[in-house]
């Protein structure tokens, strides 16, 4: 099975009470894990609470081959000015929650909405790339013996589905709003623009009555 990196979150107090680099690196070496399989995520509050320790340990982590990410930037009171003094590999900005329906205001959500199939989809060079699907999406695909890769291939090969999804993505990015469309009287798509990097755009997509969509797909 493919091995992908995992993230380790560190708080300001981790930098204050110990040599956190040495603590993490000792565990990594004990289990013979390459440094590039661990991403070190720093809480935003660490930038202002322990700047000296943070500078020191970022240098050590980078020298040992780790990536350093700042987690959920913008959720607190840090400004972009705080970033110029640190060397981060990636800036994470919290924008959506895939444990619930991102199309609905949190105050109105119930636990039943966890069953909505959700996907993180990237648009790149006119093609659609599925980066993540939640458990409800996975369960629906599994009923039809489909993988995420199978579904991605179908979306890109089916001209109608691909054009519709690309148009919804364009409309959502242009308006910075969630955009919806009916495939028929039962199947309902919602697309919400999240972020861009160079020529790549990221969206979250929810599909209501997804099993009906899969049923139609299997008949095709």
From TrEMBL:
SUPFAM superfamilies, alphabetically? Answer: EAL domain-like
The family database entries (Gene3D superfamilies) matched by this protein are listed as:
EAL domain
Q: Which Pfam families match?
A: EAL
What the entry lists under InterPro entries is as follows: Cyclic-di-GMP_PDE-like, EAL_dom, EAL_sf
Provide the GO MF annotations for this entry. Answer: cyclic-guanylate-specific phosphodiesterase activity
Domain EAL, by residue range, is 1-173
The protein's superkingdom reads Bacteria
Protein name in the entry: EAL domain-containing protein
Gene source species? Lactobacillus equicursoris
